[in-house]
Structures are given as structure tokens and as C-alpha cells.
Design a protein that fits this description.
5-stranded antiparallel β-sheet, alpha+beta, 2 domains, about 260 residues, Arc Repressor Mutant, subunit A, 9 helices, about 50% helix, Beta-Lactamase
Length: about 260
């Protein structure tokens, strides 16, 4: 583990500019499949890096929340047991470095850099892999990474929070009552418009919605048109996109 004394007085005047510019793009991708790719790009503005993995612990199991880099990058040290031990035994916010295993085949000798953290009771880590051909990190690079570790952990924790909630929740279109509650919580539609849109997303036909709500088919069409007008959309596909955005936003919202 790197002690804070190793980084004291080693910062350069412009160390923030490039990585923070790259990190800004990662913020926009939190909770999406592209997040890990943006994190890898952000890391690349600080150090030479080949791959990264975002993991968290859930009830004793190690879960993957994202990864980026070549699929064939070998990683003998990246095991649930090792990462769980690292998460539990290392001080949150720490940056842990490990050197390549000289006994392993050449392509399996990797430099490991791990940013460990805990947020809301959930242990998580950003695991960074560097090929053995890479030179050792310079002190100024270690310093920059250490000072940015809190930023990276904050982004990763937010992404992991969403992944964790998704893992524990019902699928977004699996339960009618959940769809209806999510739409109602957005506050953008009336109660009846929410009911109609929820049933459209659930897969009901106009006739089926009419029978389920006890209203005429013409009324169903009217409520649908009003809802689409309020949401500034014109198709069921756009309704689905709007709903999934609402669903994700509500999952990411901190509990009261």
C-alpha cells in the first residue's frame, strides 16, 4: 500500500488538466455499458494501462460491474478470493500496487493497480491491469493517481450503486405495478395517462387496456395521444426510451 508520505511534494502544476477532462466524459456514462470504456480512457491520461475491471462484493460474492480492454488479457491474480481479501483488509480510498509475477508465463506477468473503496456499506474496487512490458510507474504518475483516487472511487461507487440496485431489483418491464409506479413517480403524466402508458409498455393492446381499465377504446387512444404530447414523443419506441431513463434515474436516486 502506498503511504501518503510517498506523494508529498511530488505534484506538478498541471497534473489535473488532462485526466479531469477525460473523467468528465465518464461522468455522463455512469450506469451505462460504456462507463468502463470511459474509465479506461480516463486512466490512460494518467498512466499506461491495458485493461480495467470494476467489481463489488454482494453477500460474499464478487460481482462484475464493468470491464474494458482486450478480452484475452490474462489475469491470474484477479480472483474473487484475492479481491475480497483486498477489499476487506485495505483502508478505503487506498491505492494498492503489485508487481508482475516473475514465475508466470511472460504474457501473464501483469502490473496491478487497485483503487479500493467502500460506499453505503458496499465494498468496491477499480482493478487496473498493465502488461509486463510496461515500464514501472514514475513517482509523479503514482502521485497523480493517488490524488485522483478519490475521484475515481466516487465515480465507481456511483456506478456500482446502480449495478447493485439493478441486481437486486425486478427487471424494468417485468411487473405492471412497478412500471406504473415508476411512471407516476416521474410526475410528468396524469394518473390515467400513467396507467395507459404503463399498460402499453407491459405489452397490452388498445382493446386489452380498455377492458383492464374499464374505459372505451377511444379513451385509451386519447390518453395515449395526450401522454405522447406531454412527453414530446411520437412512438412506442420513444416511450420505452423515456421510461428506461426514468427507471435508471430512480434507481440512482439515493434512498431517503
Amino acid at each position: 500500500m502506498l503511504d501518503d508520505s510517498e506523494f508529498r511534494n511530488s505534484r506538478t502544476p498541471d497534473w489535473r488538466a488532462a485526466p479531469l477532462a477525460a473523467i468528465a466524459s465518464a461522468v455522463q456514462k455512469i450506469g451505462t455499458p460504456d462507463f468502463a470504456n470511459c474509465v479506461l480512457s480516463s486512466l490512460g491520461s494518467v498512466i499506461e494501462v491495458d485493461a480495467c475491471k470494476i467489481v463489488y462484493e454482494d453477500r460474499g460474492r464478487l460481482c462484475l460491474a464493468g470491464q474494458s480492454g482486450p478480452d484475452d488479457v490474462p489475469d491470474r491474480l484477479f480472483t474473487p478470493m484475492r479481491l475480497k481479501a483486498l477489499l476487506n483488509d485495505t483502508e478505503p480510498g487506498a491505492v494498492v500496487l503489485s508487481s508482475p509475477d516473475d514465475t508466470a508465463p511472460s504474457r501473464e506477468r501483469l502490473h496491478h493497480v487497485t483503487i479500493v473503496g467502500r460506499s453505503g456499506g458496499v465494498l468496491s474496487a477499480l482493478h487496473i491491469l498493465r502488461a509486463h512490458e510496461r515500464r514501472k510507474l514514475r513517482q509523479v504518475e503514482i502521485s497523480e493517481l493517488r490524488h485522483l483516487s478519490a475521484v475515481f472511487h466516487s465515480l465507481v461507487a456511483r456506478h456500482v450503486e446502480l449495478a447493485h440496485k439493478r441486481h437486486q431489483s425486478v427487471a424494468p418491464l417485468e411487473a405492471l405495478d412497478q412500471i406504473e409506479a415508476c411512471i407516476a413517480a416521474s410526475g410528468e403524466l396524469t394518473a390515467r395517462e400513467s396507467q395507459v402508458c404503463a399498460r402499453i409498455l407491459y405489452g397490452m393492446s388498445t382493446c386489452g387496456i380498455s377492458l383492464d381499465l374499464g374505459i372505451g377504446k377511444e379513451s385509451v387512444v386519447t390518453y395515449r395521444k395526450r401522454a405522447y404530447r406531454r412527453l414530446v414523443i411520437s412512438s412506442q419506441r420513444e416511450l420505452l426510451i423515456w421510461y428506461l431513463d426514468c427507471y435508471d434515474a430512480q434507481l440512482m436516486r439515493p434512498a431517503a
